[in-house]
């Protein structure tokens, strides 16, 4: 049932209320206030007057920093607060230039504070840059002497520790791309099966040539699919070639140099340990030990001998314990082997 129409008096009252409320409704401008000339031109004039009235280069530099900071403020309240602060600052600059003693002392004081803060920030930046450099140096890739074997996603290359992120991301991207290709290949094969089934159904119904959509036109349907399958197959062949690619002579030379450097570093580390220095490797070795149930069955002497065996010294009682445990000093072992070879050849006792 339709509602009865409003009376003329009610219609007039509704029109009056609508007119009164329209002026109170919140409206959003189509153009942001920071793009309006009414805001941009006075702001630029204010900034120019501040630069001209600046008492020192330090304050001028600080004004440039505040200007760059205020350019990112898009809120009307924050922008108004910054502009009011800039107007007060301009008044202080003008009174100091005219000879105001209080304003001059204030600017001198704040100029020193700005200079000190700038120096502190400068040294903080230098410190952060140096810490970042040390972090990069600590995590720089090192050739370990091993080989990262080839795969469908990468050629063989010298193993790096830690592995650079761009190499890991490249391998990850190729893995995802290969998975996508395998999914597309499976989808294209399913489409070919569907076309084959449709063609067989039309042949069975006697719909071929002009009457059929698939029967008699299989080649036309297969052609774009076969083209895509050939492209995918070429990509798989490229993956196989990448996996079976040999190391280049330059990579082989790099790996051999890394292995020689590793032996040199381990030898030098061992010499430091024999001189009494506790290296990181030796500290980890000393912290290791047999299982707790076995240690619980040992006496004090056996525990002491276990600590001696894990140490780096070979002199005196430590050497005797290590020899009794079956350990051999490298130089002594070489001398014994050389003596055994001489006896085999009949060159000595």
SSE diagram, text form:
Layout: H1 8-24, H2 37-53, H3 57-70, H4 76-97, H5 101-138, E1 142-148, E2 157-161, H6 165-205, H7 218-244, H8 249-274, H9 280-287, H10 292-297, H11 300-310, H12 317-324, H13 330-344
Antiparallel strand pairs: 1-2
Helix pairs in contact: 2-4, 4-5, 6-7
Jot down its keywords.
13 helices; 349 residues; flat; mainly alpha; two-stranded antiparallel ribbon
Major β-sheet annotation: 2 strands, antiparallel
Structural class, please? mainly alpha
Helix content, binned percent = over 70%
Radius of gyration: 42 Å
Q: Tell me the series of helices and strands, N- to C-terminal.
A: HHHHHEEHHHHHHHH
Low-confidence regions: none
Mean pLDDT: 85
Report on this structure.
- The chain is mainly α and 349 residues long.
- Among the domains are: 104 residues, no CATH class; 135 residues.
- Helix content is 72%, strand content 3%.
- It has 13 helices and 2 strands; from the N terminus they run αααααββαααααααα.
- It has a two-stranded antiparallel sheet.
- Helix 4 packs across helix 5 and helix 6 packs antiparallel against helix 7.
- The protein starts with 7 loop residues before the first helix and ends in a 5-residue tail after the last helix.
């Amino acid at each position: 049932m339709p509602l009865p129409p409003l009376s003329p008096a009610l219609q007039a009252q509704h029109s009056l209320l609508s007119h009164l409320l329209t002026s109170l409704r919140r409206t959003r401008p189509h153009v942001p206030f920071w793009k309006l000339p009414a805001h941009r031109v006075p702001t630029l004039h204010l900034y120019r007057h501040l630069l001209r009235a600046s008492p020192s280069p330090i304050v001028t530099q600080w004004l440039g920093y505040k200007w760059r900071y205020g350019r990112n403020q898009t809120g009307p309240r924050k922008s108004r607060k910054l502009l009011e602060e800039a107007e007060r600052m301009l008044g202080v600059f003008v009174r100091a230039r005219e000879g105001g003693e209080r304003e001059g002392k204030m600017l001198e004081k704040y100029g020193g504070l700005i200079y000190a803060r700038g120096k502190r920030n400068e040294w903080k930046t230098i410190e952060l840059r140096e810490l970042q450099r040390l972090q990069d140096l600590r995590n720089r890739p090192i050739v370990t002497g091993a080989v990262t074997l080839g795969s469908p996603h990468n050629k063989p290359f010298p193993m790096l520790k830690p592995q650079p992120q761009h190499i890991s991301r490249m391998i990850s991207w190729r893995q995802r791309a290969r998975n996508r290709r395998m999914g597309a290949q499976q989808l294209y094969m399913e489409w070919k099966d569907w076309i084959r089934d449709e063609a067989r159904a039309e042949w069975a119904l006697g719909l071929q040539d002009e009457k059929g959509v698939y029967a008699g036109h299989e080649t036309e349907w297969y052609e774009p699919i076969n083209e895509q399958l050939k492209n995918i197959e070429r990509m798989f062949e490229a993956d196989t070639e990448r996996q079976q690619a040999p190391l280049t002579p330059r990579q082989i030379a790099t790996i051999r140099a890394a292995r020689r450097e590793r032996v040199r570093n381990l030898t030098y580390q061992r010499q430091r340990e024999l001189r009494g220095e506790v290296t990181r490797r030796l500290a980890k070795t000393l912290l290791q030990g047999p299982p707790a149930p076995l240690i619980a069955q040992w006496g004090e002497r056996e525990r002491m001998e276990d600590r001696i065996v894990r140490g780096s010294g070979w002199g005196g009682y430590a050497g005797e314990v290590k020899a009794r445990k079956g350990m051999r000093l490298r130089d002594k072992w070489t001398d014994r082997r050389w003596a055994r070879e001489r006896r085999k050849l009949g060159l000595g006792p």
